[in-house]
Write a structure and sequence with these properties.
It is a single chain. The chain is of the alpha+beta class and 142 residues long. The chain has one domain: Roll (Nuclear Transport Factor 2, Chain: A). It contains four helices and five strands. It has a five-stranded mixed beta sheet with strand order 1-5-4-3-2. A hairpin with a 2-residue loop joins strand 4 and strand 5. The radius of gyration is 15 Å and the shape is globular. The termini are far apart. 22% of the residues are buried.
Length: 142
């Protein structure tokens, strides 16, 4: 029996991002996958996705990407996620700080024939930068 789309997305996250088996990405993602909101410096397609995952794992070697909730409709899967890690390597040009981070986000994936065809990630980049000390934290509410 074929896996449902939510299970495929969850397997991709566990195997490729958290465990770091980058080459397995081709089992879950089409070669011409379109990232609707690429991260800074992310190139096109599967190779661009692999490169950004390598960069995340280099910057946060102990990264754990956790799906907290999923909603599916037809060929689409929305996943609310959180990832944690220690900033022990350069990431997006920011030298290692040794700081632990917790970052939330939502990703919308559209699948075709059991693999991700296009994706849109909305991640708390400002929160990440504040946790790394690159941006000042927001002032407390008045």
């Amino acid at each position: 029996m074929a896996q449902d789309n939510a299970t495929i997305v969850r397997s991709f996250v566990d195997e490729v991002i958290t465990r770091g088996n980058i080459e397995a990405a081709a089992e879950y993602v089409w070669e011409d996958v379109v990232e609707q909101v690429p991260l800074p410096g992310q190139g096109p397609g599967l190779d661009g996705l692999k490169d950004i995952i390598r960069a995340m794992r280099a910057g946060f070697p102990d990264i754990v990407f956790s799906i907290q909730e999923q909603i599916t409709e037809n060929d689409k899967v929305a996943s609310r996620f959180e990832w944690t890690g220690t900033h022990d390597g350069t990431f997006l040009g920011i030298p290692a700080t040794g700081r632990r981070v917790r970052v939330w986000g939502i990703v919308f994936d559209r699948l075709e024939d059991g693999r991700i065809k296009d994706t849109r990630i909305l991640m708390d980049g400002l929160g990440l930068m504040a946790q790394l000390g690159v941006l000042p934290p927001p002032p407390p509410p008045a």
